[in-house]
Fold:
Amino acid sequence: MLYRKYRPSNFSEFIGQKHVVLTLKNQILQNKIAHAYLFSGPRGTGKTTLARIFAKAINCLNLKENADPCNNCNNCISINKGSFIDFIEIDAASKRGIDEIRDIIEGVKVRPFIGKKKVFVIDECHSLTKEAANAFLKTLEEPPDYVVFILATTEPEKVIPTILSRTQKFQFRFLTSEEIFEKLKKIKENEKINIEDEALKLIAQQANGSLRDAETILDKILNFSNNITREDIENFFGMVKKDFILSFFEALRDKNKKKLLEILNNIYLNGYDLVIFVDEILRFLRGVALVRVNPELKNLVLSDFIPEDFEKIYDILKEIPISDIQNFINIFLESYWQIKREPPILILPLELAILKI
Ligand SMILES: Nc1ncnc2c1ncn2[C@@H]1O[C@H](COP(=O)(O)OP(=O)(O)OP(=O)(O)O)[C@@H](O)[C@H]1O
Ligand SMILES: [Mg+2]
Ligand SMILES: [Zn+2]
Structure:
């Protein structure tokens, strides 16, 4: 699995989440490590990975000047192998009860055997039962100074407030498609995969901010072939061909309903996924609207597209009033949700949208 093979092993390989990484590194260099952290944020954005890197940096015997763990000393090696006795990972999704928490509470009483600190990672900590969370509270309040807790969760709103308030909180963000692309490109070079950059960009976009998802998608695609074009990826996702999209936007600019219905039916009959199609349309409309309102956003917006595609569509829409674009977004957004609810005739909400423009 690519996502296992390419799990970053130090801060330098870690992508994005700069605010979190910087603070953690500084704490290590200044020896100001807190006793409890909460890493919260969307799935596949690096919470577990960073918890492991941090635990290694805390215990590394040969820390680098930039706070990276060496990955060479006995402590780093055994953390990497999962055999370090003072690094305890608990998956609260499967071990959520009071007994597991008692084990932690007992474990906290014993000093580290080999490590400088005993690091406990409690993953998916929102899954702990209320009973277990309450039992844990006291330990979390005043742990011995040789203990560090790292709690991770995708759903911080489900963690009880008394636990939240005793942690130093870090919010992880969705990775941008540019950040994801950066890593996919490294994997491509390393694995000597023959894949077009445009194809990688599409994968990065479709991963919706999750690096794990991007790597899993790449894995799946590599099962078919080692020689991958943009078109392969479009087919894989059921994405509508660029030519269709371009002529759709031209007809939209002209409010040519007859043409729009024609293109739409063509797309439908060709078996494309309509949800993905509307998603594409909306992403482009949003991008165009943002750049129209604030041209300084252009680079940011471009990073989410294949630049030539965006430029072409921006050009097509550049004469029409921004109020029209706003209107299109409203109408297509409405039809997006309607399609997702699987109406009796799948294409109907989109046809209706076209009649409304
Ligand atoms: N910021 C990142 N930089 C580099 N690789 C990343 C990053 N985030 C995720 N990955 C990749 O995705 C994989 C999964 O990441 P990780 O397990 O850290 O995610 P997570 O945030 O803990 O997700 P979950 O909430 O599902 O547990 C990693 O093995 C790595 O390959
Ligand atoms: Mg995780
Ligand atoms: Zn080390």
Summary: The chain has three domains: 2-171, 177-237, 242-356.
